Amino acid sequence: MRFLHSGWFVKLRLFAGLALLIGGALLSSYRLLQQSPPLSSRRAPDEVSAYEGRFARARRVLPPHGVICYVPDFNSTEAAKKNFFLARYALAPLVVRTVPDCDPLIADFPSGPPPSFLDRHYAVREDLGEGVLLLKRNAP
Amino acid sequence: MLLGGSLLIALGIGLAIAWLLRPHACNARLELPLLLFLSMGLGLGATSLWFFLWLVIVGPHRSAFITSELILVAILASLAFAYSRRGKSLAPIPRIAGSRFWYFPAVAFVAALVISGIAFSRYSAAAPHGAWDAWGDWNLRARFLYLGGTHWTDVFSPRGTMPHRDYPLLLSATVARCWTYVNRDSQGAPMAIAFVFTFATAWELFCALSLLRSRSQGLIAATVLLATPFFLVLGSAQYADVPLAFFFLSTIVLLSLYEHSGFASRRALTLAGAMAGLALWTKNEGGLFLLCLLVSHFLIRLGERGLPAYRAELRSFAAGLLPVLAVVVFFKIRFAWHTDLLVTHGVLHRLRDAARYRVVLAAFADALLHFGNWTLSIPPLLIVYLLVLGVRKQESRLAVKIGAATLALTALGYFFTYVTAWVPLPWLLQTSLTRLCIQLYPSALFLLFLLARTPEEALNQASP
What is the pTM of this model? Predict the structure, then answer.
């Protein structure tokens, strides 16, 4: 058992420990490099920029600050929730309310408004394109 | 160009403050790299405080604000220069015996650095607005601070649906400050800030361990950090967790420098206080860290050195902490008194629920092994490495004791935050636990490599 404490074995153990740690670490680095999206693969704008682009006209029409309301109900689906958060980011520094109790009111339907939506409650003030509508509430 | 200027001015302010408070007055060449990387975070933190105060007191006036920062950097640089000429020298930091051993870790470090740089750039380019919490929270608030003009306080409006209105402003104010320089809300600013914090953390780890232990020790630790995929991904996501990790690490590094100065330079404690304060200005978790640090320091130092020495140390620490704390308290009272963390209803019921402890414990155990998203889990390898190299013999281990106690108490605080949380537990654990691990990870690596023998020491012992 004396060889366990001999100089060469301690050195071997040290290099093995170091190689294991650094090798394990660099293996993760290599995988990270493989998994990261290559710069050349970017053709379309990222999701957030694309969503922001839909609100470019709205930002020109809306006041620079203040409160606006937003439909549809952001709690209806996970997708609606994400759409609301993206719209809130795109419209900042406007304060966006999720309760449709104020004017102006922004309707955000990336795949177009459902047919029944504009029935009685709202009138379209301006169609801002790409599923974004500027609405006003109808008198009850 | 202007973005670079804004970052350089922040660095100048940070460096001047760090120079004024640097632990050793005679080891400039040795300390400068560490001071430089400490100054990056310190400067960004200090200028974010200034930007916030400027908005409150003066309002959004771009050219006046930039002029005020130029005056500030000139004053601080003059003070630092004057101080350099009159500075009193302390005992020099002992040089670590050189060795050729560091070439192997150096090659690994360069490889990890290059790969992480490429990966960071790729992830940043793929998501220039950052990930969900970045655009949904931090950069959103930055837009209010910058684009809101005189209505910047709308960010705290209870009429909207702003998330976490009580979150501190370091990151958002830093982004808004850079946009003020650039004069538009470009994505380059948050990306650059994320880059600075991510890589300054790794370089700080390297420089601190190089100074306190050996170059090879610093290289190995920094390689392990840079080769942690989730650290890089989270950094490029523009979240506040990596900046918070930077300030946690800086606080503990400065405590170590204080110990290394033979407890002679309490300026290091003042700087540590400022860093702990900036952690509090970054995220609410910084408050828990600060509390745990104060408790650990009290318990360990009072027993070791008695009340007078403890009070002297606390005074020095408070000298750095209080200016930052004053701004944070003002911010909380004036704008962000509401918090969604402290929902006391049902807390006792949740504390008595054994199932919640089991769920949180299982999640902690799993996260401990996998939070870095490694190909091969690194924590067990670090334990093997520590066993192979052994622990260095040292009389005083103040920084290790206080640092380890602080991290352990902070982790315990996180544990009970989960146990008592009112939001759905699985969702909360899934969305936040790995991020909390990253907050503590660089500091834990620093302490581990501070404690471990260096490869040179282990080799010297092996040689007959």
Answer: 0.94
